[in-house]
Design goal:
This protein has 129 residues and is of the alpha+beta class. The chain has a five-stranded antiparallel sheet with strand order 2-6-5-4-3, with helices on one face. The termini are far apart.
C-alpha cells in the first residue's frame, strides 16, 4: 500500500512539473529604441515598419489610433492579441489578451513569448531597411 502511495505521489509531481514547463511569465517589449536605426524616422515610418513586420510574421495588424497598432495572431485554436505603442523614439509590445494559451496570473504558454520575440526581431529588421 505504501509503495502505491509513493508511485501516485511521484506521478502527480511529475505531471505538475511537466505542465509547469509549458508556461512562463508574459514577455513584453518595453521602450525598444527606434532612433538607433535611422534618426529621421517619422511616426508614419515606424508604423509602416511595425505593420509590415507583423504581416510577415503572420499577425493581423490594425492601426487603431495614431501611435497604436493592435496585432492579432491566430494559430490553430490559439489566439494572441498585443498592442504596439510607438513614436519616433521607441516602441513597446504589450500583452492585451489571448485564447487557449493558458493565461493565468501573469503566466502564459511559452510559445506566446517566442511569438513576441519573433515579432520584435521582425520590427527591428524592418527599421533597418
Amino acid at each position: 500500500m505504501k509503495r502505491n502511495s509513493i508511485v501516485l505521489t511521484s506521478l502527480l509531481t511529475l505531471t505538475f512539473l511537466l505542465g509547469a514547463c509549458r508556461s512562463a511569465p508574459i514577455y513584453n517589449v518595453a521602450h525598444s529604441p527606434v532612433k538607433m536605426y535611422k534618426p529621421d524616422y517619422t511616426a508614419k515610418d515606424v508604423e509602416k515598419a511595425i505593420m509590415k513586420a507583423g504581416l510577415i510574421q503572420g499577425w493581423k495588424m490594425d492601426a487603431i489610433s495614431p501611435g497604436t497598432v493592435r496585432g492579432t495572431l491566430n494559430i490553430r485554436s490559439h489566439q494572441a492579441v498585443v498592442v504596439v505603442r510607438y513614436d519616433t523614439q521607441e516602441y513597446s509590445i504589450n500583452y492585451e489578451s489571448s485564447q487557449n494559451l493558458d493565461h493565468y496570473q501573469g503566466q502564459i504558454h511559452k510559445n506566446y513569448n517566442a511569438w513576441i520575440r519573433h515579432l520584435d526581431n521582425a520590427i527591428q529588421r524592418e527599421l533597418l531597411d
